[in-house]
Amino acid sequence: MALTTTRKTAAFLAAATTLVVLAGCSSSGDSSSASADGGDKADITIGVALPTTGGSAVLGLPMAQGLEMAVKAINADGGIDGANLKLVQEDSGADDTTALNAFNRITSESPAAVIGFPVSTQGFAVMTQVDRAGIPVIMGGTNSKLAAGSDWAFSMTSSDAVTTTAAVEFAAETLGVKKIALLRESGELGTGASEVVNETADDLGIDVVDEEIFQSGDVDLATQANNLRGSDADMLFVYGQQADYIVVANALATAGVKLPTFVAGLQGGTYAQLNQEGFEQIYNRNQCVPSAAVDNDLAAWSADYESEYGEAPTEYAAIAYDGMNLLADALKTAGTDPAELQKALQSLPSTEGICGVHEGTEDGNLSFGVTLGHYVDGVYTTDESLSVDPK
Q1: What is the pTM of this model?
Q2: Which of 55, 91, 185, 233 is the most exposed place for a label (fewest CB within 10 A)?
Q3: DSSP one-letter code for 367
Q4: Is 2 helix (H, G, I), strand (E, B) or coil?
Q5: How many domains does the chain have?
Q6: Does the residue 382 lie in any domain?
Q7: Tens of pLDDT along 358-380?
Q8: Same-domain status, 17 and 117
C-alpha cells in the first residue's frame, strides 16, 4: 500500500444487555414485517455489537449514536429500495465471553449483517461464530489481521498496518527520532501493533530499544514505567484500551518518564483524564479527528451530531457512521443475500467518507484514512493527513 501525504498547518479533519431496537421502525406499526396488503417492504435488520458498559464504552456509546444517525438519514432518503433499516443492538461488554454471547443473541434475530466490535480481541473471539453465521460482519478493531480472520469479516477502521506504519514513518522522517520504545497490551491489539512497529522501524533503520508489555486492565505499571525510564528512547509508542491510558499516564509520571509519546487511537474524553506529567508531548494517530475538522463534510456532520446528542462526536462515532453507509451502499447493490452482499462489500468503489477514504477489497479492509497530530494546551492540531492506496 502506498501512502499519499498532504501536509496541513491548520486543524483537519446505553448500556444494553438485552436486544434493543435503536432506529428504523416502520411507520405501519410492525417494524419487522410487511403490511398485510404488501404495500410496505419488510425492514432490513442489522445487528449491532458494541461495548456500552465497561472500559471500552467510551468507544461503543458514540458508535451507537453514529450508527443511529446514519440509519435515520438512510431511511429518510428512501432506505434500501424502499425498505427501512432497523438496528438491533447487544452490549459486547468488557470481555470476550460477553462479546460472544452478544453475537449469538444478535444472529438469532436473522440480521442481514452485523456491525460493531471496536475491540480487536472481541472481534477475534467471535470469529468462529462469524464463519458459522455466514453473513457479513463489519468490525471496528484496528488489528491488521482482523479482516483476514474470516471470509465474512470486514473492517471499517483503518488498520494498524496503515496507521502505525504512518506514525513510525512520521516519527523517523518528520521528528527525526532514532530510538523508540514500545509499551503495549498483551492482547491482539498490542501484538499486532508490535509486529508493525518493529517491522517499520527495521525498514527505516531506527531502533526499538525497549518493549514493555502489560495486561489490559492492570492497575500497576510501575515495573514497566521504571524499565522505560532506564531506556535511552527518543520517543514512546503506547497501545492499549482507553482505560489503560489513564493508568499508563500515572505510572509514567510517577516514574519520571517524560518522552514525546504516540498514544494510539487516543479519544478526546480519555485525553482529558490523563496525567500530563507523564509526557513531554502527546501525539496521536487516528482515522479522523472530528474535533479538529474545519470547513469540510466532517465539520458539518460534527455540528449535526452535537446538535442531536448534546456532545461532540468522537472518531469512532464517525467511523460507525461511515461504516453503516458503506453497508447501505452494498445492500442497495446486492440486496440481503449473504453471498451477494459479501461480494458487493468487496467491490465497493473508492469513496471519500466523513472519516477518510473507503474502498472494497477482497481481503475485507474497507477504510484507508490516517490523521497524525499532537495536542497543544489541550487542543488537537493536525500534522499530516494521509490517504492510502489499497492496491
Answers
A1: 0.85
A2: 55
A3: B
A4: strand
A5: 2
A6: no
A7: 999 999 999 999 999 999 988 89
A8: yes
